[in-house]
Design a protein that fits this description.
Layout (H helix, E strand, L loop, with lengths): L1 H29 L9 E7 L5 E8 L3 H30 L8 H17 L4 H57 L1 H4 L7 H20 L3 E4 L5 E5 L2 E5 L2 E2 L3 E5 L5 E8 L2 E4 L8 H37 L12 E2 L4 E4 L9 E6 L10 E7 L2 E6 L4 E8 L6 E3 L2 E6 L8 E5 L4 H4 L1 E2 L1 H5 L16 H9 L13 H41 L3 H35 L1
Antiparallel strand pairs: 1-2, 3-4, 4-5, 5-6, 7-8, 8-9, 10-19, 11-18, 12-17, 13-14, 13-18, 14-15, 16-17
Helix pairs in contact: 1-12, 2-4, 2-6, 2-7, 2-11, 3-4, 3-10, 3-11, 4-6, 4-7, 7-10, 7-11
């Protein structure tokens, strides 16, 4: 009798196992089009005393391909964000046949040519001032558009930081549910755990397109996630990314995390991913375009003013500038530890301005070095300083007030920042076109000063070292930007192709094939029917035996 009941038990176990197999196949078929679903497979195990048992429900996934996909997601997120941002930047500095900085520069010098032909002409003077106004509007237009783009990119940075924080919090919660205590509450088939694992993997994929993600398994199904060298998810805990306004960067946001009672910038860890690409587009490419436009405007103003100041208007007055706006701006370093409360800059000698970026770095509370950051050279070292003393170099004056600097404190100063936005015409020439200094004297017909200003248009005054005209400098900037756009677009296309190939590899393992599932369905169905047949035949045998008794 025990052998017959043993056969019944074997049949019962077989029915349960095949039923679970059918349920797994049904689940696969129903999720065939579910994004992020990993195909599941029933794992069977023979028993030592005969029969079969369900060893578990295996989630089909190639971990090697999955890891490569995370890297691909980050690269594609980076190239896509960069390509879009650079295209917008290219539009901001775009030129048409009748507008733009290049056209305005050409028109400005052409109008000077007309003025030199008729230095006493009222209409020529008014036309020249109109062309100068057009040039100012072109500079201001580029400045406005690039500044607006930087602000838009900053808003995208804020949005992506919020997304990262939301995703990492969800991953930490899933880690907690997937952990040992939660696993004990799941049924033997682990189908619930598999769903949680799919959810977590989908979130990690989303996260990897925003920031570079490295996944480290820690046991019991729990994952630790790193962004660069920073563990952003550890078990059930997630690091919160924060935004800190940077006074040295127009108040735009730095991405930081809490660290040892202070904050630590995450910029160095955001290599790939859309967040890092947005920050680079905002602070590198867009800022570089703005800086170069400002340098061009500042250099033009300095050069034209130098010549114009030496000439005479028809009213007999000399020493007047044509353009206004040249000034120096200074900022604190965000890492300064001293008690200096205010810093300011001033232009004291336009002829000595280089329009480079300078840094004043204190080597003690009473001495400092001056560094030309643009050229990467040291201007001077061991300069003495005392409270209330101004620091002068390169045609600029730096004033520190409110306290003493600490060792290592630094202050940045330049004389071009924001020039394209604030550059304007001297009110004297606006109110009276006769004030335009076309001659080296006030004599009627004197055009020598206008000719000297015309000559500036072909002089090599731009670049380090100066080797380009104003127009060539600006056009070269636009060409470089166009090249960057083409490279970014090409890289995006390459990454899209690479990701499609990796997704195909992942799908070949994790994806659901309806044909394969149909075959498996028949296989488990037939096994289920056979197990039922075994139970039926055994039952007939049992009834026969009972009848004999």
């Amino acid at each position: 009798m025990s052998s017959i009941f043993g056969i019944l038990n074997t049949g019962r176990q077989a029915l349960n196992v095949q039923q679970n197999g059918l349920q797994t196949i049904g689940n696969n078929i129903s999720n065939a089009n579910t994004t992020g679903y990993s195909r599941q497979r029933t794992v069977l195990e023979t028993l030592s005393y005969g029969g079969v048992r369900l060893a578990g429900i295996e989630r089909m996934r190639d971990e090697f391909v999955s890891a490569r996909l995370l890297t691909s997601n980050s690269k594609l997120g980076s190239s896509s964000a960069q390509s879009t941002a650079l295209q917008q930047l290219e539009t901001a500095v775009g030129e048409t046949d009748d507008s733009g900085v290049t056209v305005s520069l050409r028109n400005f010098f052409d109008s000077l040519q007309d003025l030199s032909a008729s230095p006493d002409g009222t209409s020529e003077r008014e036309s020249f001032l109109a062309r100068a106004t057009q040039l100012l509007a072109s500079f201001s237009g580029v400045s406005d558009q690039v500044t607006q783009l930087r602000t838009q990119l900053d808003e995208q940075v804020k949005q992506q930081v919020e997304q990262v924080n939301t995703i990492t919090a969800q991953i930490a919660e899933l880690n907690q549910r997937i952990g040992p205590q939660s696993q004990a509450l799941e049924n033997q088939q682990n189908t619930g755990i598999n769903q949680l694992l799919d959810q977590r993997d989908n979130l990690i994929n989303q996260l990897s397109s925003i920031i570079p993600v490295r996944v480290i398994p820690t046991g019991s199904g729990v994952m630790t996630l790193f962004c660069g060298s920073v563990p952003i998810v550890e078990g059930a805990s997630a690091v919160t990314l924060q935004l800190s306004p940077d006074a040295t960067n127009s108040g735009l946001s730095n991405v930081v995390i809490d660290d040892l009672g202070g904050t630590r910038s995450l910029a160095g860890d955001l290599g790939e991913g859309s967040l890092g690409a947005l920050i680079r587009a905002r602070d590198d490419q867009a800022r570089d375009v703005l800086d170069q436009t400002d340098r061009l405007a500042a250099t033009l103003a300095r050069d034209i003013n130098s010549v114009h100041r030496a000439g005479y208007g028809l009213d007999g007055v000399t020493g007047r500038d044509l353009f206004t706006g040249l000034s120096a701006s200074a900022t604190f370093s965000s890492t300064n530890q001293g008690t200096v409360s205010a810093v300011s800059g001033q232009v004291i000698d336009e002829s000595a301005l280089t329009f480079d970026d300078y840094e004043v770095r204190f080597t003690s509370s009473t001495s400092y070095d001056v560094i030309d950051k643009t050229l990467g050279t040291t201007v001077s070292t061991g300069n003495a300083w005392a409270a209330g003393q101004n620091i002068e170099f390169g045609g600029m004056r730096l004033t520190l007030t409110g306290g003493a600097p600490a060792v290592g404190d630094s202050f940045d100063i330049n004389s071009y920042g924001g020039m394209s936005a604030r550059m304007d015409l001297n009110s004297a020439v606006v109110n009276d076109p006769r004030a335009v200094a076309a001659g080296t004297t006030s004599a009627s017909g004197d055009n020598r000063n206008a000719l000297a200003m015309i000559a500036l248009g072909t002089q090599m005054t731009m670049g380090n070292p100066p080797a380009q005209t104003y127009e060539v400098y600006y056009n070269n900037m636009r060409v470089r930007l166009g090249t960057q756009v083409n490279i970014a677009t090409s890289l995006q296309q390459q990454e899209e192709t690479a990701q499609q190939q990796l997704q195909g590899l992942a799908e070949s393992v994790s994806g659901v094939s309806l044909d394969e599932e149909a075959t498996n369905l028949i296989q488990f169905q037939r096994a289920y029917e056979a197990a039922s047949k075994v139970i039926g035949v055994t039952d007939e045998m049992l009834q026969t035996i009972i009848g004999l008794i």
